[in-house]
Amino acid sequence: MSLNLTTGRLKRLRVARRIGGRPHEARLHAGALVLPCAIGRSGITRAKREGDGATPAGIHALLFFYLRRAMPLLTAWRSTKRGDLWCDDPRSFLYNRPLRAPTRLSHEEMWRKDKLYDVVGVMDYNITPARRGRGSAIFFHHATDDLGPTAGCVALRPRDMARLLPRLARDAVIIVQ
Q: What is the CATH number of the domain that holds 145?
């Protein structure tokens, strides 16, 4: 278990594929908590490409959270608003960056009707510098109830996310192996 010694909060979350499971089935280890999670439909990769459906391996800081509703437990958060988008267009200089509607660029909508993005942790993957075509919009967000595959993100069921968020350190990282 890795704790931030000054706050007693979880600093390292480890994601590992479930042995014998389908490529998108994984476990998130957070101290003593072990939670089922969903990853990309293609599993984990070290050679991430836009649209490959894989979750990038590595150590990714949780930079900040987008929240549909304020949560005082999280210090680095932004309120999600209708019109918030995330650019996934590798032809654009805004690739893997937030932007606002309207736009003609390919993008992810941050305000989703299915509520999967009610809580979105922006993972520090391909952010600085953003390399076009190497993968975008890699988030830590809510999963479907059946833990269906993501497009490359790490996802927890809402009830598990609610258990985990109050325990996270401000400088938490997700280690994908």
A: 2.40.440.10
